[in-house]
Amino acid sequence: MSEVFHARIVEYRYPAHCHDTWTVLIVDAGAIRYDLDTRHHAAAGNTVSILPPGVVHNGYPSERFGRFRKRNLYLESAFLPIGLVGSAVDASTFDDCELRLAISRLHDQLTDPDPLDIEIRLAAIAERFRRHLKPSAAAVAPPEPSVARRLREFLDGRLTAKVTLADAARRFDRTVPHLVRSFKRQYGLTPYAYVTGARIEQARKRLLEGHPPSRVAVEVGFHDQAHFTRHFKRHVSVPPGQYAGKASRRIE
Q1: Model's pTM, two decimal places?
Q2: Quick one: signal sequence residues (predicted)?
């Protein structure tokens, strides 16, 4: 992900320009019109728009509203195959409530991001765009229990390290969405939820051994104390410091 941009635009016209990224756009209020290459498009309400890299476009409020409020994701050129650029020019906007909700929730998660969670969300969003842009390739391979078990072993060996499903996808010659589907079908939760829960279990043991919460957060793979505390409290019902204190009193 290259950039996130939220804006409220009133009576302003973006000049013709282009980006070297894929732009994913949702509109929260009003409506936007834009010309992409020689095609005219509009976005509002439940629609989702995607603008491909390297293609000239502009942007301006619709005459009816005169303004709009939007949220943009600027995603690396590898987000979608370059062969889909032409399809995205022809059909740039989609009325897809489920896709829009997924993008909106991704924006919400970016206030306190976890790389593995963001990776899974982006992969699911990309797969849905691929279905819109290339319907002939919309068939989804069924989940594979054997791949799910191999992925669990892969994750177990890297619980406290930085881990990406892109690495696992290359190793197993599968796509990230397929790995997520297979894992969730086999174990009932996403790889991200599994890794988070396993890290919390390790954290509990280390706290009971007397390690300070700030050190435990780093040792078990959380990127900072606040991130660790939020997940620990959600799993255990109390913050790590309080949990360690209660455990210490029980031991005494």
Answers
A1: 0.85
A2: none
